[in-house]
Amino acid sequence: MTVTISWEGSAASDMFIIPSIFEPCGLTQMIAMRYGSIPIARKTGGLNDSVFDVDDDTIPLEFRNGFAFSTADEQGLNNSLERAFNLYRNDPESWQKLVQKDMTVDFSWESSAAHYEELYAKSVARARATIRA
C-alpha cells in the first residue's frame, strides 16, 4: 500500500497537508477535495470554515470531510497524520466513502448564494413576526 501526500501544491494525492499559521480564505483544500485528496488542515481562517474533522462528534456526520488540528506545532500535525494514516490503512471502505463525499462537496457561489438567500428569508420572516406580535 502506498499513500501519496501533497504539501500545499499539487493534485493527484491521497492526502493534502495544509499546516497554515493563518489562512485568510483557504482555496487549496477546496481544490484538493474536488480531486479526491483528503485535507489535513490546521483550524484557522477559511480552513476552519471548510475542513471539518472526521472524528469531531460535535459536527454532523455529513459535514465531516478531513482531518483538522488546532495547535500550530509538530504534535498537532502528527496527531492528524496518524489518524489519517490509520483510517487509510485500516478502513479502506470508510476512506473511499470519505473521498467520494469530498469530491461531491459544492463550494460554488451558486450554492453559497442559495444558503444566504435562505438565511435572509428566514431573518425577514422572523422580523415580520416580531413586528406583528
Automatic annotation (TrEMBL):
<dbReference type="GO" id="GO:0009011">
    <property type="term" value="F:alpha-1,4-glucan glucosyltransferase (ADP-glucose donor) activity"/>
</dbReference>
<protein>
    <recommendedName>
        <fullName>starch synthase</fullName>
        <ecNumber>2.4.1.21</ecNumber>
    </recommendedName>
</protein>
